Amino acid sequence: YPKAFIYDLDGIITDTAEYHFLAWQKMAEELGIHIDRTFNERLKGIGRMESLQLILSLDPSASNLSVDEKEQLALKKNEYYLEMIERMGPKDILPGIEELLHANKQHGIRIALGSASKNAKHVLDLLGLTAEFDYIVDASTVKKGKPDPETFTAAADALNVPYSECIGIEDSAAGLEAINSANMFSVAVGDKAHLPNADYLVAATNELKFEEIINQYNQKKA
Ligand code: G6P
Ligand code: MG
Questions:
Q1: pLDDT, tens digit (0-9, with 9 covering 90-100), for 9-45
Q2: Binding residues
Q3: I want to staple 146 with a disulfide (CB 3.0 to 4.6 A). Which of 15, 43, 178, 219 is the partner?
């Protein structure tokens, strides 16, 4: 068995990836910038200011915004986001995740979070999952965000587990790249077009079955 599972948060443990998108879209529309779900794939997994920068780069007239104005925009997006997730609770944990966490526990496998979000702890609290995690990496922990491997290696280092014995789970291209460059076994949730390089790809979280993930992990090792 591997020694640790490192979970991405948004889009894996709960569907906050959707709220991040809707909040960015609302903020962008107010500037006359249109973003769609295809564009949003590039926003998944990357930090707040990097996301804003990518959105603003769609509109040449946004290039003269000051640092202060950009911070205001990011703040506004976050307020929309917090409003959208206000009523979230344990019922919003995505299908298959609680079973997977439970299987990890049963087999003595450590559990970590590897998130780029400043809201990660708040979201875990809303879901009632904070106590399940042995270690939490969020935006405040890492210097280099995804696709840099640091989010995942920092979790493994804190748990004192070799990277080759970790499994990372992601829904974003940037996060998948981070797991792969950390030399961990990568499990991706989504479609092949956006996530071409996963060691093991499933379409949705309800397909994340512990025994099958372990099978795939051991096959790669063999
Ligand atoms: C994760 C999500 C992104 C989000 C980023 C920053 O990477 O996948 O969609 O923009 O975290 O989140 P924050 O809550 O700090 O704005
Ligand atoms: Mg994600």
A1: 999 999 999 999 999 999 999 999 999 999 999 999 9
A2: 8-10, 24, 43-48, 51, 77, 115-119, 146, 170-171
A3: 178
